[in-house]
Amino acid sequence: MARSGSHQTFAVHSACLRGVEAFPVTVEVSSSGGIPGITIVGMADSAVLEARSRIRCAIRSSGFEVPRLSFTVSLSPGDMRKTGTGFDLAIAVAILALSGQIPISGVDGCLFAGELALDGRVLGVRGEVAFQILSRSERLRFVSGRYDRHISMGNVDQVELGALGGLRGGIAHLPLIPSTRCEVRPEMAMLDYEDVVGQEFAKRALMIAAAGGLGLLMIGPPGSGKTMLARRMTSILPPIDQMELEQALCIHSVMGEPADKLLSGIRPFRNPHHAASSAGLIGGGRPVLPGEISLAHGGVLYLDELGEFQNSVLQMLRQPLEDGEVRLVRVDGTYVFPARFQLLAASNPCPCGYLGDREIACRCSETAVQHYQQRLGGPLIDRIDVVVDVGRPDPSTIVSGSSGASSHDLKEQVLRGREFAGWRCREKCESGSLRSGLDSSVAAYGLEDNASEALVELARRKRLTARGITRLCRIARTIADVDEKILVTTDNLLEASMLQGRRNERT
């Protein structure tokens, strides 16, 4: 605390959410004579300015006195917009410390973030995980209110302050919340592919997509089980690592989304409606917040009824699919959101959905079918490697309940394929034969001589472009990794060709 004549100042540490990160903010309070009141400066939004009324009521309700002074609250840095209600606690602590109503010992070593209720209770705020990460990096004790969805990130000294009146005895006397490292605790049962009957080819395609991180599009009539297949994709993906877990938890915390499934080892699964806006899918708004693709980070983004999405919205997915992140440029700077996900999509083959069905005749005209299928084209589809036709299973198969591959079986193949691919890349690196990651030449995939000849024949017969040849090789390479083969065989190429489904072969 600094004094200068009749003026006094006191500063405490706080933070502001910007995107999915918490940035340090210094809350400095100065008092002087004049008309009693609180003035807040530093690019504060309406939620921050409304803190003045909440703070006065909370101070009175907690048994403290509101000094009859003029307070000026400065939120530094002043050139960064401040949003949210998390500054309530920091401003109240600074006013109480400045007026000598609470001990100042230990206040300087704390980061305060919390909303004040009118009765003096301290409420938790969204973005608790981001605040914890900042506190850990700044080596500060994190002081906040009660949060129903509390997640301990580990190595963070945290104090849960139930009410503002609890500060009467000072910060040093408040008990710490036991800090445990945030780890996956398998508790929740996952959906299993064993429940899906009559779709073994689609299961195989999903397994290959999971092993190679390939985008996959399912085309089939209503009731064929496309959504059932997609929802079980998370059950065959590798366990989430610590970095992905922290990033996903941070995003979910900022958005106020529950994280129970994440902590139970279930990767995110997001299924946005086809009417989603660009801000809802990619991120944006004011304040700038992450979208569905960031909430799917580390998991699966499922776009059902792909042809019904706005084309302009779909094209925004191209850059995140390549970079694994979203970069949104605004007048106040650039926002970067993690967005590394497994892309799944589904579509009907035509407007009525029954084109090619064995039992129900299609009612669509040829023009309507062409127009509908054209909506599935474009640059985004070039990022989707696998296109699989999903037909309606035979009723006898459903009635008999015959089971096929389970999630456990498929996951073992995914893990085996990824492990073999990692070993193969390390071997190439040690031998000095590994090409640059930007090299998409056929030679980089390691084809047998017979397979190379078969690739030429396939390319001529299907009239594949260079992009189509590369896509075919990528799928075949993944199949070979699952089979633990160093070189891609002809059989791998033929299976890869089958997994390209109804793709336009001229693209």
Task: Please tag this protein with its features.
507 residues, disordered N terminus, elongated, Rossmann fold, Ribosomal Protein S5, domain 2, 20 strands, five-stranded mixed β-sheet, Helicase, Ruva Protein, domain 3
Give the structure's gist in a few sentences.
This protein folds into three domains: 176 residues, Ribosomal Protein S5, domain 2 (2-Layer Sandwich), CATH 3.30.230; 219 residues, 3-Layer(aba) Sandwich (Rossmann fold), CATH 3.40.50; 73 residues, Helicase, Ruva Protein, domain 3 (Orthogonal Bundle).
Low-confidence stretches: 1-6, 434-440
Q: Give the CA-based shape.
A: elongated
Number of strands: 20
The percentage helix is 25-40%
Please indicate the count of domains.
3
Q: DSSP strand (E) fraction?
A: 15-25%
Oligomerization category of the chains in this entry: single chain
Describe the structure.
The protein has 507 residues and is of the alpha/beta class. The protein folds into three domains: 2-177, 2-Layer Sandwich (Ribosomal Protein S5, domain 2); 193-411, P-loop containing nucleotide triphosphate hydrolases (Rossmann fold), CATH 3.40.50; 435-507, Orthogonal Bundle (Helicase, Ruva Protein, domain 3). Helices cover 34% and strands 18% of the residues. The chain is built from 18 helices and 20 strands. It has helices at 46-49, 51-61, 88-98, 128-138, 200-212, 226-231, 242-255, 260-263, 278-281, 292-295, 311-315, 318-323, 366-374, 395-400, 407-431, 449-461, 466-482, 490-498; strands spanning 2-4, 7-18, 21-32, 37-41, 70-76, 110-112, 115-116, 122-123, 141-144, 158-160, 176-177, 216-219, 269-270, 283-284, 289-290, 300-303, 325-330, 333-338, 342-347, 386-389. The strands form six sheets. The chain has a five-stranded mixed β-sheet. Strand 14 and strand 15 (289-290) form a beta hairpin. The longest helix is centred in the C-terminal third of the chain and has 25 residues, at 407-431.
